[in-house]
Design brief:
36% of the residues lie in helices and 28% in strands. With 366 residues, the chain is an alpha+beta fold. The longest helix has 18 residues. Strands 1, 2, 3, 4, 5, 6, 7, 8 and 16 form a nine-stranded mixed β-sheet that branches. It has a seven-stranded mixed β-sheet with strand order 10-11-12-13-14-9-15, sandwiched between helices.
Amino acid sequence: MSAHFRPDMPVARRSAGWTVRLADAGDDGAIDSYVARHPAGTVFHRTGWGRAVEQGTGQARHNLIAEAAGAIVGLLPVQVIHSPLFGRALVSCGFAVDGGIIADDARIADALAERFWEMAVRHSCPTAELRGGTIPTDPQWHVKEETYAGFCGPLVDPGADADERQLLAVPRKQRAEIRKGLQNALNIRIGREAVDLEQHHAVYAESVRNLGTPVFPASLFAAVIAEMGEDADILTVLDGDRPVASVLSLYHGGAVMPYWGGGVFDARRLRANDVMYYALMNHARQRGCTRFDFGRSKVGTGAFAFKKNWGFEPRPLSYAVRTANGAAPRDINPLSPRYRLQVAAWQKLPLAIANRIGPMIARGLG
């Protein structure tokens, strides 16, 4: 794949006053401090995310760091993703929508990208994927900016009538849907306990089965809740005692990101998803958040339109991919035409069967 790679390549590489090396567990505290102070640091750069993915899916985690005078000046979280169905890839960052290179300048970013590719070769990964962050200047990295968009906007200021002001900040058509849902007297539960994980997984598994995609392992959700501590929680909407919509959210830098969410078939009639995101906005504001990060959606999809209906403006996301000579980039997008028949078949599976075999497939999607 790359004739210039040598198996005896040194662990650390010094250039222009900095050193690029693989981090070890003793570096975790310094890494998290760097992420917290870097303006482009995200929840996916944090070491807890990498540990959770490793624990929950078995996909190995690493961190590439650049150091100068003993201080971290650049970071690239790394996950080695292996799947019998989809092959191998080196990804930054695993099971994330962001988590690419963050660095103090472009030269350091390029050095991290080059070392990242060398790691891909060493791990027999024909594809290397950078999600967000600083894009390498090397033209061998193919940049995609037209596929996904992110949605992020401000929450209203706290204070008197904040919940009502939050509702009024939503465009009229979507606001009407929320009000219809509120009339259904749905209950809201927020927590991080075993019952929250159980209810969330049941709802989320049914939701993604209906979309035709396999559900992630329950162990991944549990590991994220455990590793992220108070910076992750689950909000569930119940019709009486029956969970109908649920979302696992992440908190970082004053923003809340509803990350894994969905609803059962009856959620649409109850407007449970509308109530869920509105309740999350209020909950996040009460926690001190000032921004609502609706995450990414593929351009032209129903999820993309749904988020625009809430008044969020799409922002193109930049991803970079590099492949070995003659290799095609891996394709794990369920909306790809090549998976049309598989998606249709998965939607017809009994939920018990989908939940049994789905995690074995999904742990290799990354």
